[in-house]
Amino acid sequence: MIVAIDGPAGVGKSSIASAIAREMNYFNLNSGNFYRAVSLLLLRSNLSFQDEKKAVELAKQTEMEIRENRLYMNGEDVEDELHSDAVDKIVAQVSAIVPIRHIVNDKLRNISHTLDLVAEGRDMTTVVFPQAEVKVFLDASPEIRAERRFKQGVSDLDYEDILEGIRQRDVIDRNKEEGSLIISEDALYLDTSALTLEQVCEKVTGKIKELN
User: Fold this and answer.
1) Binding residue per annotation — 127?
2) Coil, strand, or helix at residue 206?
3) In what order do the strands lie in the sheet with 64-67?
4) Is 179 annotated as a binding residue?
5) CA distance 199 to 206
6) Mean pLDDT on 100-129
7) What is the mean pLDDT of residues 179-184?
């Protein structure tokens, strides 16, 4: 079974997908980390995402795999470097490059062939896994999402800067040439603004159990 979860930046997709995967004993597939890995690679290589030809070529040559729910790039565990402020600053632009989306989507689909999984991202329900048995769209206001991210303490930015970054990310995500953030017609829509993680997970796992 494939459970596909979409939603904007900071809505809690990763935490919710991880919790659901643990409860259901499914594989947790975080699509955003693949784009973050490409972004990290560009930063390390001193390449700009604006040089799309070189960025795409670099992505093609890069091996990415998941081992024990951690992302490895060319054999190196880079999981702990994927959520830096520097990566956050460019990942939306990197993920908007269409050939890079194709490269990442192929990797995601290859992983899904033999697994029950929870996949989360921006276009899991609409582009990558339109055949998913369970589709979910998580939402919350930009202010709520910025507050959550600020309280996580993973960024050196203050609340206002995080909020502005989220608003900019929303504009980019909703206006991508391919893989833009939209709500699939057959997705379960959940506004998580007033819900706890446990309440969201209960609603999604309930949907999964209905089909099992």
Assistant:
1) no
2) helix
3) 64-67, 70-73, 76-77
4) no
5) 11
6) 92
7) 94
